[in-house]
User: Which sequence fits this backbone?
């Protein structure tokens, strides 16, 4: 139960991203680089955030409102960062397009752009899973397990892996939504992403109540599925639009 | 539809990053598996701690002074050895150097590798008798020693042994005490910077000497030669290439891929200095192509030889030949169709090829990036010290491992970018090691309380 359990937790949190990586990302070197740089960006954002909160840590575990402030500031910071990420991506897209013109290859297809967005999102998601879940999993590979008092029905590692999976999904696909929203200038999509992120993050506050994780986790998964559905609908719409339209350029 | 530029950008970078990642991953695994819960059990004595043996009870000043001394001595030793190598190379003792490299590979694989295998066997209680183990180890080391500078060895095997050597030495170095490791890494990064970039630096001399003689460096270097891409990386696109040849819609991909392949073949070991095609002026493409066709019997024999020696395992000579032939026909057809874009394409391809020629490499035990004819080369020292950093981070926590890994990889990426700008040998250690160390301490001191505090309360965002 030791190594097997540890691996199980890892795969629970990262299994879907792993398969995404193997089947979509790994074939195209550029997407791998995108994943790496987006992971790095997330790590840097986390370091900056923790540097800002360093003075106030460790938080008292009795009151929930400091955590609420922490979550709100963190999500806000990361969403601002996403806008910068988009700007950087925009420049990159121009460079890629001019490069494609120079080698007289076709410019980036719509699917290419979406794949870049997906890779960026996957980087964020993987970084989240790695730092919030995987890095705490080391004890799970040894004997025994660990429970937190507030969520006594499941081992702590299992809970965090499950929550992580939801967040990985949200991060991955909300990046696709956000990039598309920025590209189209679609205000509702632009607001949808931070809203989902914020709501999902604040739903982890429910875990603060004793036994709250049984309520909080389904709610987080509801948000994850909502993101997935929205992303799927949007991608489908874009693809059918471009297919029905005669190919320009 | 599939021929977007996403697939062609960054192949070289990934070709270097993936072995480095594999090396680091295995070192971390080794550190976790083999030496768990045994702090300060064995203090090893190597060249890296000649002066001062760190013990956990020493005061901080003692540790700092001692480790600084250690690092200084180690760097001096390394630079002496490198200067000696330069001298030997200058006076054309190339064979001596090669055999010395083989010998040291043999010793490292046999002794250090042997002891690591032994501890793995002990840890997992693998039932194996000593005679079998000895025979296996002997075979393993001999193949490793031979793979170094021989021509007949598949490049895949050579690359594998390079990574393995890196892993073994790095795993050995992770047994160094903590302070010594950190100062050593910093000192080596500085040394690397000086040795490669400063005028009169030993590695710079070595690289320039090798370039002026148009020889391969007699050093332990990982080559991500494009031939491996052709076999591994392009393995997937080979089918696409062949099938794409029948449809005229994806014409534009073909010339690039196979002019690329043409270059790769020509640039391979023995005759890379004669790669006039890849570096020459391409003013008149059809003529060039005709020339290509005319010389093809000759080149074909070359190819045959090379594909027997450099194509790895399942890629038989016959297949390569047939594919080449098909490519040639294919190219012929395209030229008649559209000549002018092809000119651009090939010229650009050549530009890129040249840019790719600025390369990464190293002096024997030390580390840097250097220039050679094809593919990016990374010194074995880079592998080792990246992995030492990550392995050291692994002794603290997994979080620091990830942070260090990202720091090192992004540093490597920056170095490779610089390489394409500067087009000369560059040190690979400084940027990566600096970033790695910064991320390590940021993570350990700043980030960990934050992340652990939030996530043990099941708060995430």
Assistant:
């Amino acid at each position: 139960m030791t190594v097997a359990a540890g691996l199980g937790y890892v795969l629970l949190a990262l299994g879907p991203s792993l398969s995404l990586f193997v089947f979509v990302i790994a074939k195209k070197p550029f997407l791998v680089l995108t994943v790496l740089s987006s992971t790095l960006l997330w790590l840097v954002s986390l370091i900056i955030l923790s540097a800002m909160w360093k003075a106030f840590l460790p938080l008292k575990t009795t009151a929930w409102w400091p955590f609420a402030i922490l979550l709100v500031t963190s999500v806000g910071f990361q969403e601002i960062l996403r806008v910068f990420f988009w700007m950087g991506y925009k420049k990159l897209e121009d460079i890629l397009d001019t490069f494609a013109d120079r080698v007289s290859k076709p410019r980036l297809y719509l699917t290419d752009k979406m794949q870049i967005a997906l890779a960026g999102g996957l980087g964020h998601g993987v970084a989240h899973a790695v730092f919030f879940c995987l890095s705490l999993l080391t004890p799970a590979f040894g004997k025994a397990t660990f429970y937190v008092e507030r969520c006594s029905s499941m081992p702590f590692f299992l809970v965090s892996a499950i929550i992580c999976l939801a967040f990985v999904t949200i991060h991955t696909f909300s990046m696709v939504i956000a990039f598309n929203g920025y590209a189209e200038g679609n205000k509702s999509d632009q607001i949808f992403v931070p809203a989902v992120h914020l709501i999902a993050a604040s739903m982890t506050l429910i875990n603060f109540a004793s036994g709250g994780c049984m309520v909080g986790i389904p709610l987080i998964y509801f948000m994850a599925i909502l993101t997935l559905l929205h992303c799927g609908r949007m991608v489908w719409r874009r693809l059918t639009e471009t297919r029905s339209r005669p190919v320009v350029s | 539809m599939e021929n977007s530029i996403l697939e062609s950008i960054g192949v070289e970078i990934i070709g270097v990053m993936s072995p480095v990642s594999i090396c680091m991953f295995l070192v971390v695994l080794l550190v976790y598996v083999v030496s768990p819960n045994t702090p300060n059990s064995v203090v090893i004595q190597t060249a890296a701690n000649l002066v001062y043996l760190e013990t956990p009870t020493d005061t901080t000043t003692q540790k700092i002074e001692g480790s600084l001394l250690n690092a200084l001595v180690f760097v001096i030793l390394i630079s002496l050895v490198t200067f000696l190598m330069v001298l030997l190379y200058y006076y054309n003792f190339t064979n001596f150097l090669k055999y010395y490299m083989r010998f040291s590979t043999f010793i490292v694989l046999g002794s250090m590798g042997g002891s690591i295998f032994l501890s793995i066997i002990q840890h997992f209680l693998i039932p194996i008798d000593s005679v079998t183990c000895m025979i296996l180890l002997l075979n393993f080391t001999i193949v490793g020693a031979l793979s170094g500078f021989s021509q007949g060895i598949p490049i895949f095997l050579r690359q594998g042994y390079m990574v393995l050597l890196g892993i073994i030495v790095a795993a050995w170095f992770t047994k160094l005490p903590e302070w010594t490791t950190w100062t050593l890494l910093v000192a080596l990064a500085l040394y690397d910077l000086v040795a490669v970039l400063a005028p009169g630096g030993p590695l710079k001399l070595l690289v320039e000497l090798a370039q002026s003689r148009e020889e391969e460096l007699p050093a332990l270097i990982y080559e991500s030669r494009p031939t491996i891409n052709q076999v591994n990386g392009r393995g997937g696109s080979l089918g696409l290439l062949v099938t794409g040849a029948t449809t005229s819609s994806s014409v534009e991909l073909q010339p690039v891929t196979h002019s690329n392949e043409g270059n790769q073949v020509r640039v391979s070991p023995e005759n890379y200095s004669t790669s006039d095609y890849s570096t020459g002026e391409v003013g008149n493409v059809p003529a060039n192509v005709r020339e290509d066709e005319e010389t093809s019997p000759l080149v074909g024999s070359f190819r045959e030889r090379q594909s027997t020696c450099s194509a790895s395992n399942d890629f038989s000579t016959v297949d390569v030949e047939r594919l080449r032939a098909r490519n040639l026909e294919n190219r012929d057809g395209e030229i008649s169709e559209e000549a002018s874009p092809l000119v651009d394409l090939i010229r650009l391809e050549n530009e890129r090829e040249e840019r790719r020629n600025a390369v990464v490499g190293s002096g024997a035990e030390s580390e840097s990036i250097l220039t050679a004819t094809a593919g990016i080369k990374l010194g074995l020292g880079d592998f080792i010290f990246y992995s030492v950093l990550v392995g050291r981070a692994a002794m603290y926590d997994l979080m620091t491992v990830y942070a260090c890994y990202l720091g090192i990889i992004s540093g490597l990426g920056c170095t490779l970018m610089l390489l394409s700008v500067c087009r000369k040998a560059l040190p690979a250690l400084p940027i990566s090691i600096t970033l790695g160390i910064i991320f390590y301490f940021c993570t350990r001191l700043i980030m960990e309380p934050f992340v652990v505090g939030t996530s043990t309360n099941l708060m995430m965002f």
User: Anything to note?
Assistant: DSSP finds seven helices and no strands in chain A.
